[in-house]
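check these C-alpha cells.
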Amino acid sequence: MIASSLVVTTAPAQAQAVLPCGPGQFLNAFLALSNGCQDGDKIYVGNSSLTTAGAAFRDLGALGIDFMPNPTGDVHRFAYTRFGGLGYSGSPYTLAYKVSIAPGSGAAFSQVTLGSDVPAGTAGIKVTKDIYTGDWSGTPLATLTSTDGSMGGPFNVPGGITELFILDTVTYLNTAAQFTSFTNTFKQTPVPEPSALLGLGLLGLGGLISKTRRRG
C-alpha cells in the first residue's frame, strides 16, 4: 500500500496597494498608513517613531501634498499646515518621512527647497530640513534652513537618486514665536516624451543603417 502525500500550496502574498494621498489629511492619519500614499509618481511614507508624538502636533496639523506638471521637470510639494498654535515648551517638533519616485517613472530628483510661513509679530521660528539617502542615520546629504519665513535651498540632488529620507525640525527660539506652515518642494528631472524616445530610437536606427550601407 502506497501512502498518499498531501501537498499544501499557498498563494503568494499580494502586495498591498498604496492609497492616493487624500486632500488635507491630518498628520496622524498619514502616519497610520503603513504603505504611505501616492501623488503623481511620488510615494510618501511617514516615520511615526521619529515624528513628534502628541495630539497638538499630529491632530492639529494637516498635510498638503500635490504636484505641478512642468516640461522642465514636475514640481512636487509636501506641506504641513497648523490649525492652532504650538507651545514653546514642546519645541523642537519633528516630522520624518520618506519620499520616493514610483517604479517606471523614469525620473530622478534634481532639487529640494524648504520654505516656512511665520505670521507678523511671531518671529523666532527656525525650520531645518535634513535630507538623507538610505535611511535617517549617518550624515545627511544636506541641511536646509528656513528662518522666520526665509527660503532654504535649493539643494541640487546628486544625479540618479530616486529615494530621499526627510527629517523636518521646527524650533521655537522664544515664547512668542509661532508658525503657520512649512513646505518641502521637490523638483525632478524631466521624463522624455514617448515621441522623443521614439525619435531617438529611429535616429539610432538610421545611423546604424547608414553605417551598414557604407560598409556594404
Q: What stands out?
A: Residues 114 and 152 are 5 Å apart (CA to CA). Residues 4-13, 195-215 have pLDDT under 50 and may be disordered. The chain has three helices and twelve strands. The radius of gyration is 23 Å.
